[in-house]
Amino acid sequence: MSSHRKTRTTPGPLTxxxxxxGLFAAGVAxxxxxxxxxxxxxxxxAAVVSDHVFSHADRGHHTxxxxxxxxxxxxxxxxxxxxxQANAVSAGCSADDHCRSVALSFQIVTVAGEHTxxxxxxxxxxxxxxxxxxxxxxxxxxxxxxTPTALRFDDATRGKLADIHRRLDELTRSTLPADELRSxxxxxxxxxxxxxxxxxxxxxxxxxxxxxxxxxxxxxxxGH
Length: 224
Description:
By secondary structure, the protein is α/β, with parallel strands linked by helices.
C-alpha cells in the first residue's frame, strides 16, 4: 500500500491590522465552477466564504481534473473568514494502468476597512492510495487584497482575470506532467498577483499602506 498525504498551513501577518491565520476542518467537496464577483458594500459587516475543489481518479475513471477560479469582493467589513481548499486523490491504479487526478483552486478576496479582522485558511492535499505510478496534484492559491476603502474591479481588471481563468481551465485539462503543470500554475498565480497590484495602484482612493498577499499551497505526487 502506498500512501502520500500532506497538509500544510502557512501562518503569518496578512495586513497591518489585527490578522489571524487559522485552520478549519475540511468541508464538503465543491463544484469546480467560477463564482461571480460579489458586489462591494459600504456598510461594515462580517463575511464568511469557503471554496473547495475535489478530484478523484480510480480504475473506473482514470483521469479527473477540476479547477475553480473565484472572485469575492466584500467591500468594507469588520471581520472576514475565508477558506480555500484543493484535494486530489488517485486510488487503486497501477504503473501499467495509471491514474491522473488534478485539483486547482484560485480564490481572490478583497476586503476593506481600518480595523478588519481576517481569518484566512488555504489548504491543499494530494493522496495516492495503492496507486503506483499515478500522478496526483492539488494546488490552492489564495489572494487577499486589503485596502482602507472598498475596491471595485474595473472592466479591464475583470477582463484580465477572465483571461487567466480561461488559461487555468486549459492548463487543468492538459496532459502535462505534474511538475510542469505545477510550474505553469505558479506562473498564472504570478499573473493574478500582478493584475491585483495594478488594480490597487490605480484605485482612486486609499493610502500607501495597501496589501496584496498570496497564500500558496501545493501538494503532489510525484513531488519535489
